Structure formats: C-alpha cells, structure tokens
Amino acid sequence: MPTKQSAQHTEHSGGNKGSTRKRVPRAVREPQMLDAATEVFSERGFHAASMDDIAAKVDVTKPMLYAYFGSKEGLYRAAVQRAGDHVVQMLTELMGMEDARKRLQEGTDALLSFFFSQRAAWTMVYNERMAPEGLFDISVFRERVAEIAAQTLVEACKQASGDGDTSATDADVQQALPYAVAMIGSCQGLLSWWTKHGDVDQARCRTYSHELVESHLRCCMQALQGEASLA
How far apart are CA 130 and CA 120, in angstroms? Predict the structure, then answer.
C-alpha cells in the first residue's frame, strides 16, 4: 500500500480501463501535461481547447488534469507561466555577456531558436488573442523582454561611443524603451511573414532579423548620442 508521501509525488498513467498502469513521478508527468496543453491551447485558443483532448494527448484522465491544476484556467496559466519564464530566463542569462552588441546578436538568435523549435510556446507568450481578457496578463513577460532589450541597446550604444562608463541608467533605459519595443515588434512581424512563406529558409530569416536589430541599434544610437555612429 503506497504511503501518503508517495501518492503525492506519483500517479498512474493510462485513461483506459484495459490499459496497463504505471507510476509516473509528478516531476515527469507535469511537464508532459504542460507540453500537451501548450500544443492544444496554441492551436485552438483557450475557449475551443478541450480538457479531454489535452488529457488524451498525454494519456491521462481528465480528473487527473484537474487534480494537478485545479481548472482549465489553472492549466492555461501554468502553461503560459512556464513559457514566459523560459523566455525571460533565457535572455536574463545573457546579461552577463560584457559585449552588449554581441549580446543583442545572441539574444536575437536565442529568441529565433525558441520560435523555430517551440512554436506553440512562443504563441502562448506573443499571441494576445489566445485567452480571454483578464485570464492571464502576458504583457508582463513581453515588458520584461523589452526592458532587457532596452538596457542592452543602451550599453551597446555607450560601448560603441567609447565614452568610458557604459552602464545603463534608469533614464537611459526609459529613453531606449520605444526603440526596443519597435525592434522586437519588427522582428515579430518578420516571423509572422516567415510563417506564411515556407520557401524562405531559417538561415535567411535569421539574417533578416539581425539586419533589423542592427537598424534599430543605429536609430537608438542617434537618439541617445546624436552624431555617434557604429564602427
């Protein structure tokens, strides 16, 4: 007979009565549920997504989904939270890179790799039409990404000017924020275009994205430092 502790951390898989059941640790099963939920929500949106379909994708019962997440809304929030946290953490880890211009390039590549390899998770963070208003404020993640981008833009501009202190003040970041939002938005627009043109390979899409980032960096430099220019 399982102990209370083991019951909290393991469960049986298989929704059919005739299926062989095996214990799956929660640490393994929960990510599987979130993967399935992310796929279904990104394809159908919140209202059209079915808990039955999500349960079937991961081969668990619907009651088990409710046991883990409490409700369909709870499952959706958990899926968005995971995707958003991943994006923010991915970019935050690059902030230790001293060369800010290279950091912009690495950050662009990281986001593109995330888009190409985890399209469903990307959709959860960057498609505002996924959930009804008030269910989850996904702007929190996008705003944090924009702040990281703005800080990096400022530091890249200062490093290029060679003025000594390359740290970004709060005022600097606020001044650069519109350029960061425009930079991210233009890359999003490019990715939206790319999804409709299968004849354009990923390598070219990356090249276009880097060109857009460089263009916005130059605009930001002109705004922050007047006549300063990139080498």
Answer: 11
Instruction: Quote the CA–CA distance of 85 and 145 in Å, as a whole number.
Output: 10
CB atoms closer than 10 angstroms to residue 191: 19
For residues 229 and 135, the answer to whether their CB atoms sit within 8 Å is no
> Which residue's entry shows tokens 């220019």?
229
What six digits make up the tokens of 101? Answer: 């211009």
- pLDDT tens for each residue of 56-86: 999 999 999 999 999 999 999 999 999 999 9
Amino acid at residue number 52? D
CB 147 within 8 A of CB 95: no
**How far is the C-alpha of 208 from the C-alpha of 185, rounded, in Å?**
14
Q: Where are the alpha helices (DSSP H) in the chain?
A: 4-9, 26-48, 51-58, 62-69, 72-92, 100-117, 119-126, 139-161, 170-195, 202-225
DSSP code, position 49: -
The per-residue DSSP string of 110-160 comes to: HHHHHHHH-HHHHHHHH-TTSS-TTS--THHHHHHHHHHHHHHHHHHHHHH
What is the rounded CA–CA span in Å between residue 65 and residue 71?
A: 8
pTM above 0.85, yes or no: no
List Cα–Cα distances, 28 to 13, 31, 61, 84, in angstroms: 11, 6, 16, 20
